[in-house]
Amino acid sequence: MADEEIRVAPIRRTLDHATILGLLGAFALIVVAIYLGGSFGAFVDLPAILIVFGGTITATMICFSLGEVRGTVTVIGKTLFQSIREPSHAAVHVMQLASMARRHGILSLQDVLDTLRFEPFLQKGVSMVVDGIPGDEVESILRRDVVARAQRHMRAASVLRRASELAPAMGLIGTLIGLVQMLSNLEDPSTIGPSMAIALLTTFYGAVLANVVLVPLATKLERNSSLEELVNTIYVLGVASIGRQENPRRLEMLVNSIMPPANRIRFFD
Amino acid sequence: MADEEIRVAPIRRTLDHATILGLLGAFALIVVAIYLGGSFGAFVDLPAILIVFGGTITATMICFSLGEVRGTVTVIGKTLFQSIREPSHAAVHVMQLASMARRHGILSLQDVLDTLRFEPFLQKGVSMVVDGIPGDEVESILRRDVVARAQRHMRAASVLRRASELAPAMGLIGTLIGLVQMLSNLEDPSTIGPSMAIALLTTFYGAVLANVVLVPLATKLERNSSLEELVNTIYVLGVASIGRQENPRRLEMLVNSIMPPANRIRFFD
Amino acid sequence: MADEEIRVAPIRRTLDHATILGLLGAFALIVVAIYLGGSFGAFVDLPAILIVFGGTITATMICFSLGEVRGTVTVIGKTLFQSIREPSHAAVHVMQLASMARRHGILSLQDVLDTLRFEPFLQKGVSMVVDGIPGDEVESILRRDVVARAQRHMRAASVLRRASELAPAMGLIGTLIGLVQMLSNLEDPSTIGPSMAIALLTTFYGAVLANVVLVPLATKLERNSSLEELVNTIYVLGVASIGRQENPRRLEMLVNSIMPPANRIRFFD
Amino acid sequence: MADEEIRVAPIRRTLDHATILGLLGAFALIVVAIYLGGSFGAFVDLPAILIVFGGTITATMICFSLGEVRGTVTVIGKTLFQSIREPSHAAVHVMQLASMARRHGILSLQDVLDTLRFEPFLQKGVSMVVDGIPGDEVESILRRDVVARAQRHMRAASVLRRASELAPAMGLIGTLIGLVQMLSNLEDPSTIGPSMAIALLTTFYGAVLANVVLVPLATKLERNSSLEELVNTIYVLGVASIGRQENPRRLEMLVNSIMPPANRIRFFD
Amino acid sequence: MADEEIRVAPIRRTLDHATILGLLGAFALIVVAIYLGGSFGAFVDLPAILIVFGGTITATMICFSLGEVRGTVTVIGKTLFQSIREPSHAAVHVMQLASMARRHGILSLQDVLDTLRFEPFLQKGVSMVVDGIPGDEVESILRRDVVARAQRHMRAASVLRRASELAPAMGLIGTLIGLVQMLSNLEDPSTIGPSMAIALLTTFYGAVLANVVLVPLATKLERNSSLEELVNTIYVLGVASIGRQENPRRLEMLVNSIMPPANRIRFFD
Asked: How many CB atoms lie within 10 A of CB B166?
């Protein structure tokens, strides 16, 4: 039955469609709205891009350290391109590994290690157990990992939140610069319109950057982080239980006790 | 007396008049205000609708997963078209069922199962008890259900809250696009007015979407969710008490202990 | 001495001068400011009134149930036209009743029941005690009443808070409707001014409704509710103590223990 | 040594320079900025003053009772003209009194009572002890006083906070009145400028009233209140310890235990 | 090995690159954006600088005491020019000192005291231990220092936060002054543009001051303060452990127990 179990749930990390579709969709809508109104060129202005994007990045840098800003970019990459596993799928998978280890011995997990390559955290835990490290020690090492990862995500989310507050402010600063320049030189009335258009561009950039990119990504990051913490805690419980050679039924109870009610599993009937 | 009791309180789910009247009334007022001022056509603009409604949906999608956004639409449907029962009515009903079961035996509830079809949660609980599942087990299954349902509602309310913050931002972005386009092409002064009118439309759509639809629905959802949790907990207590064949007087005490003071019941005099 | 005691503190509910003077004063100031600037007629516009007042009411209705909105109006009426008694006056009054009952027996309170008609909560409690209902039972019934009343007030305050957030939004929506209409029809420049004036009226109505009426009433309601809860709890303690025929000195200690330090009383020297 | 101790720290209440300098400085800056730009007369308008100052006061009155608004004015007077003593100075002073009483007896404090006239709270406590009231009773009376005073300050701070939220709203209402009046009478274009100037004045008044007066005073009040509570608690501890004729070393320990670490004292070496 | 240990981690305080680069970068971007648009002179106006910078400082002074405002400037200086040590580096360093003291005696630390001159807090602790002050006493003195320092930082951060709220308000007040002056003198239309440009300058200054300087510095200060508290607590634990002549392995456990999981060290293998 062990092989069959593994066949039942091969791990495959999928792209997070909501994030990618949402981002593409929102930008497509903005581009379409611009094209419908006419010239696209009026919406690209290098100094405006400089002051909003550069200003948001530099002001965010003052708030944090270089390492935290860099870490945020890495974390965003992972948020964009990977979707989190369903907690109940992760739980079923862990139960399958546990009952396989129960029947054929821990060393039998060696054969399935390769199928876990898309879930490196689980793979690391299983390979530690296969290498004979005691269950309790594996648990304490992995738990520390889970907490550190959650802290990293929360830090990244707070960087994004702060940046989302600074972006509209930078847009306002850019617009004020443009307005002051325009008002100081009112000699040729025909330039008023285009000058104001350029002045408003920074407010536009700031609003898009904050509301389409930074706020949604921060919200998604916080949401994903707590979900990933749950999934990884399930992995920790499972791997530690395998390492301690406990009865898988006990593992099921443990896993269900940390699950939200709607996601609880019934592996044994 | 059992029959009489059931006759006393036949369950009937009514529409939530406040939500429907409020929504219809608010939109009617806006339509009337527009008609009084003249042309209705000036208030319909496809690109504006696209950027505000599409932008709010796509940006909300980035924040959450596709499933959560879809789940919110389902939950809104239920909020709009169903009103929650009064906790004290639910309590009296449960007391009636309990005293009927006490006098004529649990199996007598079989006959009234059909009259509970508008309250599926209660119906499910009673039919489990009639099927002989022990009271404690019924209670633990139903309680899990209550919590899961409350979590689903809270998630939907937070999706609506986030969307209500993004809608005005999308309105602003659309207005900025319109203003930049208008200001870049000031050659024909006669087009300035209509162009600005269209630019302002997205701000109008965003304000209506947020303040007439999203914020009120989120508030209503949070309010209804805690009310429904109370009513369902009353059902859980009642069904479990029936399953354990306890004295209905004990049930009355239990139910009153979780009721707000104004809603407490006196079933036995 | 009993008669003298009652004469000392006849209960009389006075109007809440701060609320009425404040409301009249604020509106008088606005009216004066309008008259000083000229025509009053420019500030009355039926569609503007419809969209702001109607819109705020309908959008608030979506957030709550019809019953809650109606209950809020009732509660506002009481807040406007009645001032809460001073906690220390209430405490002294209760001490007077307690020492009268101590000297002349509980039935002597029958004679003063009529003088309590402006404080119906206290009157109800005293008449229950006179009717011979045991002190502990009176206490539990009245306490439930106090909590239910506080919950009703808190609900009304949250309705007002939500309405105070929706009123300026409705003002903005009305102004946007007016602006779009004006900008779509710029043919006759002489109408621009009056059209914008009417468009701004809704913002004006929304600002007045929120800042002069709704926010102040919500604040007052929250303040009065906690004060009334204190006064009523003093009544509950007093009536229960009379019912249990306890020493009034014990009652004084009890009452002082729930009083803010500045309001504590010394009835016995 | 007793005389010497009193000589070491004669109590003198000084003006709070930060509050007075800050208020004078901020208003001086505004006046200078106005003079640099030209005519001062354009910034004084009676109806504008009426609507902003009167409106803020009346709307605040609705929120609270007349007594609370009057109490706030009294409390502001004290905040402006008195600076709070340094907690460590107060502690040293109390230690000096305690060791004087230890050496020469409690009655010797009679001679220094007059030097405490700028610190009436401490004076009241010491004279109670000199009059022979037991230490524990003095402590309970004074503690009640400290709490009542802190509550009064917190209430005043919340009145100021609410007023600081209402002032800009009243400014907006005034500006809307002015704009509507101006836009209704556009016949003579030469009056547009001055009319808009007057309309903007109320927004200016509201912004100055809120940001230069009300918000800073509320912040200062909250800060001073917690400092004064600390100083008065030190006095309570000291006076009670003197009344109980305890060893001053025990008092030093007590006082240091409630001090922030940076302010702890070492009276005995 | 002791010498080698010290050689491994000579303490060197570096500049905080993120703060300095961020500030320089943000201001460079603003200057570049201004130069690209033309004249730099239009962006310097003495009265505008006076009202925004002076107004923010004076209004902040009202909120706090002179000492607190002065203390904030000192704290900002340290935040700008010093970077905090990595907690794990600090922990390794402390472990090195502890094992050196273990092998060669506490007095051997005398030789390395000079290399700690960039970390005065650690130096002070070590020299106290070398002077023979008992470990427990050193710990209680240093702990008090750590708390006092953290309180000072939090106070400075709250001064910055309040100033960041007042700066845009001062910008608005300045702009309103400018607008009223311009609107009162509309005789020469050619001056409208430059007058409005100057009026907008204060809003520009306020936005830059708040969003590029005050908010980021307050955020950085809060972040650095909690980091410095951690590093200093590590020093306290280390110095106290050396003073008590405990086994360094126990110190490693203690230090790791207060570290965030990602930063834990393994000094002994």
From this structure: 30
Which chain C residues touch B17 with a CB distance below 8 Å?
66
With an 8 Å Cβ cutoff, the interface of chain C facing chain B consists of 47, 50-51, 54-55, 57-66, 69, 144-145, 147-148, 151-152, 162, 165-166, 169-170, 172-174, 176-186
Instruction: Quote the CA–CA distance of A170 and E208 in Å, as a whole number.
Output: 8
- For testing contact with chain A, the best of B45, B52, B62, B69 (most A CBs within 10 A): B62
- Return the pLDDT at E10: 60
State whether B170 and A211 contact (CB < 8 Å).
yes
Whole-model pTM: value is 0.88
**Which amino acid makes up residue D96?**
Q
Q: How far apart are CA C254 and CA C234, in angstroms?
A: 9
Closest residue of chain A to B143, computed from CA coordinates: A261
Nearest one of C107, C156, C97, B140 to B128, comparing CA atoms: B140
* pLDDT over 50 (residue A237): yes
Q: Which residues of E touch A47 (CB under 8 A)?
A: 32-33, 36-37
Closest CA to B214 of C165, C177, C218, C70: C165
Mean pLDDT (chain E) is 86
Q: How far is D66 from chain C (nearest CA, A)?
A: 5
Give CA–CA dist A127/A5, Å, rounded. 19
Contacts with B176 from chain A: Cβ below 8 Å: 200, 203-204, 207
DSSP at D86: P
Lowest mean pLDDT segment, chosen from A186-190, C150-154, C229-233, D54-58: A186-190
**Which tokens belong to E166?**
């007042």
Residues B200, B203: Cα–Cα separation, whole Å: 5
Chain A partners of E22 at a C-beta cutoff of 8 Å?
Answer: 58-63
Tens of pLDDT, residue by residue over A166-202, are 999 999 999 999 999 888 877 777 778 888 888 899 9
* Three-state SS sequence of chain C: CHHHHHHHCCCCCCCCHHHHHHHHHHHHHHHHHHHHHCCCHHHCCHHHHHHHHHHHHHHHHHHCCHHHHHHHHHHHHHHHHCCCCCHHHHHHHHHHHHHHHHHHCHHHHHHHHHHHCCCHHHHHHHHHHHCCCCHHHHHHHHHHHHHHHHHHHHHHHHHHHHHHHHHHHHHHHHHHHHHHHHHHCCCCHHHHHHHHHHHHHHHHHHHHHHHHHHHHHHHHHHHHHHHHHHHHHHHHHHHHHHHCCCCHHHHHHHHHHHCCHHHCCCCCC
